[in-house]
Design goal:
711 residues
């Protein structure tokens, strides 16, 4: 009997088995990391809280970094079976993007400006053409070349000097939103030696082409609190401090009016505004206060001819109104009504032109653009006929024009950039987003707006989109998204990446919970401070409504939110974990009491008007009652993916890290719990258009894998 073939087979099988074993993670790699318990006692108002994972706050500690890497390794090992699908999903999302894309050009001061992307490149290339678009292209900045050698790169605040010869710009290579400003000679391509550190990234030129105004940040809290004046060619150490915001609840910034007549310093908190103005032709002069701050008075200013126009909540105008005042007497005592307040319509912004002004409004959640002649002879709204759309004024830098440029898109329709002649009302689509998928057709998708009833009887709007073939019988998976803080509205916009969910049978729903401003300013006020819990219960009640109406079921319902929306995720999993199959909490703000009680943490003091100051016992007790970290308990939790950024300046990485550590110690289920920390990025995640897609693909893969669709 010839045994040689059997021997060969045995040897080959042994080699194959060993090679497979080597490629698989070990059992220790599949066991979730355990964070060391080191009790840290925090006392306030006679109340004692013990934080077992307070030690994770030390970003420089090797033990902390090791723990974060272990969590990353655990995530990668446990999801290794989805790696191929993640790559497939990334390539799918990437394939829908027009890689060699160019923005719609806009004209300013004799030049046409635009940005373009090159095939395969991550970052934008900024260009301009003199006089006409047919002139030679001048490359101002190539973000791809500038980003070489950096794991993270963000270019912002490009500001062209009045004589068109120079450009100031800010760069962040750490993702802490601390930008260094440089100045480039656009004629020679050389950089000036001027180097302005730790700024917001934006700078404003005075009319003399040599004076710049910019804002620096506090190096510890990252609060933008000081406005400086810099003279080209001088060392930054000699820069003159022209304004310092001493109230720790305010942030300062500087900009130029559209009329280019004034340099304006803004100083704002959540509830109060104050501005200072200086003629751009007089950079050596002193800023004068537009109108002194009054607690609760919010306003923004727009200059036209010899007047300022003011969008404000003065005199109890909760949804804001427009007032005006002479530029010679700007105090609030002289303000006069221009557009009256309406209880049911929120005024969000105005755009000023030579012969027209355009008012951006929100009526019953829908955005509207109202065109008006200054002489009051004509007023009309641009026509929109959808319930799940968004429209807003785009780049309108040209003052002496009849053309209004705006953006329109809906949940089923890619965005369009449109020019409308405000006199003739004729419009032209300058650019429509191209979905580079031959199978994409708008008619394949449906959208609608629903109204769920909250537990206190309030109607909560939900914007929804899905593929036309998706069954509405309770069997379909649904991803519910919300933010719900700071009066920030999540509009029903179109997304090419979202198609990867819709085409796999998912319904996508935005819950417009209280705390946003979808239904006006009162909607925001009903979801902040001592009414913050309305945001959380609204989201839960929307979930229950979607289940009751047979759009989905608890076995197929997923939730997602980031930052303050991550706080929302943290609360709902504590309150109603059984409602959700899976939850994605991106850079979540979950340790509310500790963060709000520590004024040294970036941005804390400016948040008091949003969440409350825990030094006040009433606010302390209230935020402690919902703070996700403080309310983790021994119970089952849904499958969860939590993300963090090591250099995050908005939500410090240790909040999600501590939260996951506590969840691991207390949860009673066997569901998945992952923490993924981007060790090179901050709050906004990875830089570059393709790297950002990889993060989206990771989050979607987590959900699709739970649904059995990561194939």
């Amino acid at each position: 009997m010839n045994c040689r073939p059997k021997l060969v087979i045995v040897v080959l099988c042994t080699i194959l088995a060993l090679s497979c074993k080597k490629s698989q993670p070990s059992m220790s790699e599949l066991i979730p990391p355990t964070a060391t318990v080191t009790p840290h006692v925090i006392e306030l108002h006679g109340d004692t809280r013990t934080d077992d994972y307070y030690w994770l706050r030390d970003r420089e500690s090797e033990a902390v970094l090791t723990y974060l890497r272990e969590e990353n390794d655990y995530y990668f090992n446990k999801t290794r079976h989805t790696e191929a699908f993640q790559e497939t999903l990334f390539q799918e999302m990437k394939s829908r993007i027009k890689e060699d894309d160019t923005s719609v050009p806009y004209k300013r001061n004799g030049y046409w400006y635009m940005t373009r992307f090159a095939t395969g490149k991550e970052y934008a290339i900024y260009t301009r053409h003199k006089d006409t678009l047919n002139g030679p292209e001048e490359i101002l900045f190539d973000g791809n070349e500038m980003a070489e050698g950096f794991d993270f790169f963000d270019l912002r605040g490009i500001s062209i000097s009045p004589d068109n010869r120079m450009a100031a710009y800010g760069v962040d290579t750490l993702s802490r939103r601390q930008y260094n400003i440089r100045i480039k000679n656009l004629e020679t391509g050389e950089l000036f030696e001027d180097f302005l550190e730790n700024t917001t990234g934006s700078a404003v030129w005075a009319a003399d082409n040599k004076t710049l105004f910019y804002t620096r940040k506090d190096p510890e809290t990252l609060r933008s609190n000081r406005v400086y004046k810099h003279v080209l060619g001088t060392d930054a150490s000699a820069d003159e401090l022209v304004f310092e915001e001493e109230d720790e609840t305010f942030n300062a910034y500087v900009y130029k009016s559209k009329s280019r007549k004034f340099i304006i310093i803004g100083s704002i908190s959540t509830l109060t505004s104050e501005f200072r103005i200086l003629p751009a032709e007089n950079p050596g002069g002193s800023f004068t206060i537009f109108s002194p701050r009054q607690r609760g008075l919010e306003y923004s200013i727009y200059h036209y001819a010899d007047h300022f126009y003011i969008v404000t909540n003065k005199d109890g105008a909760r949804n804001f109104k427009v007032m005006r005042v002479s530029e010679d007497q700007t105090d609030a005592t002289y303000w006069e009504d221009f557009i009256p307040h309406r209880e049911d319509v929120l005024i969000e912004d105005i755009e000023i032109f030579k012969d027209y002004y355009v008012v951006s409004e929100r009526d019953r959640g829908l955005t509207r653009l109202q065109v008006n002649r200054w002489d009051r002879t004509e007023s009309y709204y641009l026509p929109f006929d959808n319930e799940t759309y968004v429209a807003y004024s785009y780049v309108n830098l040209d003052f002496d024009t009849e053309e209004l440029r705006y953006v329109y898109n809906a949940m089923t329709s890619p965005y369009s950039i449109i020019d409308v002649n405000m006199r003739t009302r004729a419009s032209v689509i300058l650019k429509q987003q191209e979905v580079m998928d031959p199978d994409f057709k708008e008619d394949n998708y449906r959208s609608e707006r629903l109204w769920a009833t909250s537990r206190d009887g309030i109607k909560i709007p939900i914007s929804m989109v899905y593929h036309k073939d998706t069954p509405m019988d309770g069997t379909s998976p649904l991803l519910q998204y919300a933010y719900g803080s700071y009066g920030s509205t999540i509009d029903p916009f179109f997304s090419t990446t979202r198609l990867s969910l819709l085409d796999r049978g998912f319904i996508f729903a935005i819950a417009h919970v209280r705390g946003g401003e979808y239904l006006g300013r009162p909607w925001y006020e009903a979801g902040k401070l001592l009414q913050k819990k309305n945001s959380f219960t609204d989201f839960i009640d929307c979930s229950k409504y979607l289940i009751e109406e047979d759009y989905t079921s608890a076995d197929h319902l997923y939730a997602m939110g980031g930052s303050a929306g991550g706080l929302l995720m943290g609360v709902i999993v504590n309150l109603e974990p059984q409602l959700y199959r899976g939850v994605v909490a991106a850079v979540p703000f979950v340790d509310v009491v500790t963060t709000m009680g520590d004024p040294s943490i970036p941005l804390t003091t400016g948040e008091y008007d949003e969440w409350g100051n825990p030094q006040d016992r009433e606010y302390y007790d209230y935020m402690k009652s919902y703070s996700p970290y403080d309310n983790v308990r021994a119970q089952g939790y849904p499958n969860m993916l939590v993300t963090a950024g090591l250099h995050d300046s908005q939500v410090q990485y240790w909040e999600p890290a501590k939260w996951v550590a506590k969840l691991r110690a207390l949860k009673t289920d066997q569901n998945q719990l992952f923490l993924h920390t981007n060790m090179e990025a901050g709050h906004g995640g990875a830089s570059g258009r393709f790297n950002a897609l990889k993060e989206t693909a990771r989050e979607y893969t987590f959900i699709l894998d739970l649904e059995g669709k990561a194939l």
